[in-house]
Design a protein that fits this description.
The chain is α/β, with parallel strands linked by helices and 343 residues long. It contains 8 helices and 13 strands. The strands form 2 sheets. The protein has a 7-stranded mixed sheet with strand order 5-6-7-8-9-11-10, covered by helices on one side. A hairpin with a 2-residue loop joins strand 6 and strand 7.
Amino acid sequence: MHLSRTPALAAVAAALVVLPAATAATAADVPGQDKDGHYRFAVIGDVPYGDAQVAAFPTWVDQINATPDLSFTIHVGDIKNGSSACTNEYFSMVRTQFDRFTMPLVYTPGDNEWTDCHRTNNGTYDPLERLAAVRSTFFPRAGHTLGADLTVASQATAGFPENVSFRRQGVDIATLHVVGSNNGLLPWPELGFTAPTAQQVAEEQARMDNAVAQVRSAFAGARQRHDRAVALFLQADMFDPTYAVTWADNSAFQPLVRELVAQSDAFDGEVYLFNGDSHVYNSDRPLASGSRWLDFYGVEGSADNLTRVTVDGSSNNRDFLEVTVNRPGAEHVLSWQRVPYAP
């Protein structure tokens, strides 16, 4: 939900250029992956924010592309700041840059590109209409990534093509379309509503139900195959340490938090949750025993094996996160480092 701390972004008029589809990649031939379970990938989010980052974004894409042995990149949402217009032209510009990734690019939406588009400085759009535009622009081929074409499982038949999953060397990876602004339940006063509309509530409920189903599916597969880890990616920071969170800010996340605790507790491996939204790099265990978030969400039990990682974003977006999937036998399944963008 975070408002941008950068200057307002001017509308960017760039025609959509869809590059020719690359040969479909499979589990055995994704670049940068070797047979002993060791590979790397990049995570970015809350980018590009504002005119300066829009101008720099192609160079940042180039740097990620030039980083040796990356298997794929995941963008955890917010492709614009919170005070700029949600235009089709802007979406097309970002899609053009996403198509420049030479590896598979997995993107899960954030609130800035649809939920918050009711704001006057965003163009006073109907957020649900903008959600449809996001899906048509970024998810036209269900079960396929942007960038290099990787076939993935998706919830397209349920109406959520953005929720995808795949497995690499004993790590089950899934995206969850869960966003800030209380998962899209904050009112749209600029459109004349002081409380969530019936359509708004129905949309959020269906999206949360499918996010929970995605979590259950990821863990079920991991348990069946005795996999090493589950890694989940979403935009919302459900455990934001940067301000005093209230129930009105985060109440919609309760079903997901409960499911995370239940599934993690029943899983023998490690669990990783990557998010954006709060813009400041952080790594913690928000659902471990004794955490205040267990009481906040009214959750019984704990998830001591769950590690949460927030990527830098907004004005802090001076780096990308390079994640390593370590070889079996390492102390932890995943490790990571922040890689500064070149000047």
